[in-house]
Amino acid sequence: MNIPRPSLAVYLMANEDAPALAEAAVRGGATVIELGIPYSDPLADGTTIQRAAQAALDAGITPERALELLAEINDRVDVPLVPMTYGAIVESYGLEDFCRDAAKAGAEALIVADIPPEESGPLRDAAAAEGVDLIHLVAPTSRPERIESAAAASTGFVYLVAAVGVTGARENLDPRVAELLELTRGAAGDTPILGGFGVSTRAHVEGLIAAGTDGAIVGSAAIDAIERGGAEALEELVRDLAAGLPS
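Above: the chain sequence. Below: its structure as tokens.
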């Protein structure tokens, strides 16, 4: 998976509107699309994404349908696509089958939020067999040895959690981001590092870039924009966030 540096990843929930929303995000300047596969117990997600996931589940979005939507998005935009989900979904589907079907749908990388690097060997092997990168998360509360193992095991990019807790728009990012980034960079080598969790303003994007990340990830703020004004509001938000990236 090759992403531009700097980069702006936009998270969308898998639902029937996702292909059109992905087009709007890319028009606004998104360089990566993350597609959330809804799960009933999303431990890393705050109320905004939980609400979107429940709505998707209520609408009948299954993992299989989510991958069909990913393929539709792949037909409509020309940026890397990254499904994001949880271990129970992937394990129930079957590791090899999930990675095969995700790759066929256009996935270039995969985020499984609750599978730590120490337990990700079988998933990493299944993904690698299909040419799909596996992305891990590092957080300000992670132990140094966990940061090193997660960063070293990540391909595609490393997901740097810029706020403690679950996803959700925040006023300020965690002040420990600079220290976390230094540890992560040492283990990640040349693998890009994108900061997420709490990113909702151009100032957040600028702050992450100034700290030394290779870009930012917006999730809950994107969902909020969609709920407020659909594709038009999403495109407007993404365009404003993208303006925080150096040209």
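The domain at 7-242 is CATH 3.20.20.70 (TIM Barrel).
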